[in-house]
Amino acid sequence: MSRIISGAAGGTTLVSVPGSLTRPTTDRVKEALFSRLDAFEVIAEARVLDLYAGSGSLGVESASRGAQSVDLVEFDGKASEVCQRNADLVNTAARRKVVTVHRSKVESFLERTLAPVRWDLVFLDPPYPLDEPALAGVLAKLLPHLAEGAVVVVERSSRSHEPAWPDGMERFAERKYGETKLWFAEPSVEDAPDTDTDATDQAEPESVS
Fold first, then answer.
1. In a domain, 143, yes or no
2. What's the whole-model pTM score?
């Protein structure tokens, strides 16, 4: 059972996707992730995109914490229905429509999206069967839709290889929590200083107190 951890809808129990259709982010990992995003100061008033949204847990958490808008993209019918129910919970708490659900394949959604849409924070938690070349293709399609200074978070198995970042996007941090690994990337900036001070992060505790 997952919940919204903080913000306007903090403590709200989220609806879960039935069966094993998705691989939900645990509350432990989510709490650590959002603690880091709070440190980056990228959530408040952000335009957020949650790809392969599953239950929409990461997107609605962002909405609860003050994101300007959140787009949840999920193709599976049952999962997209759950996304809508969770979106309704947060929209009710916020007293406005913050979260919008899109039932679509991720690639099709990105191909259809036209400028000037630009997202400040993007979550990708693709299913395990999605191979590395396919993920690289999605990241390449995503790149033109990123705002300056955007943060992209890719969640994968800790046994997975680092994603193949497209030209114009680079990893600046990674974190490992048990069987889950989070990769943080941003649009490249020419002549930017090297900010990768935590290449492996093996020293970071895997539990969140």
1. yes
2. 0.88
Alpha carbon distance 54, 103 (integer Å): 11
CA of 118: how far to CAs of 64, 94, 160, 203, in Å?
20, 22, 28, 34
CATH number assigned to the domain comprising residue 33 = 3.40.50.150
Q: How many domains does the chain have?
A: 1
* Phi, psi (degrees; rounded to nearest 5) at 196: -85, 90
Residue 15 forms part of a structural domain = no
* Residue ranges making up the domain that contains 35: 27-187
Whether 21 is covered by a domain: the verdict is no
CA distance 134 to 52: 13
How many angstroms separate the CA atoms of 148 and 141, rounded?
A: 16
DSSP string for residues in 31-45: HHHHHHHHHHT-STT
Q: How far apart are CA 165 and CA 171, in angstroms?
A: 8
> pLDDT tens digits for 10-42?
999 999 998 755 677 888 999 999 999 999 999
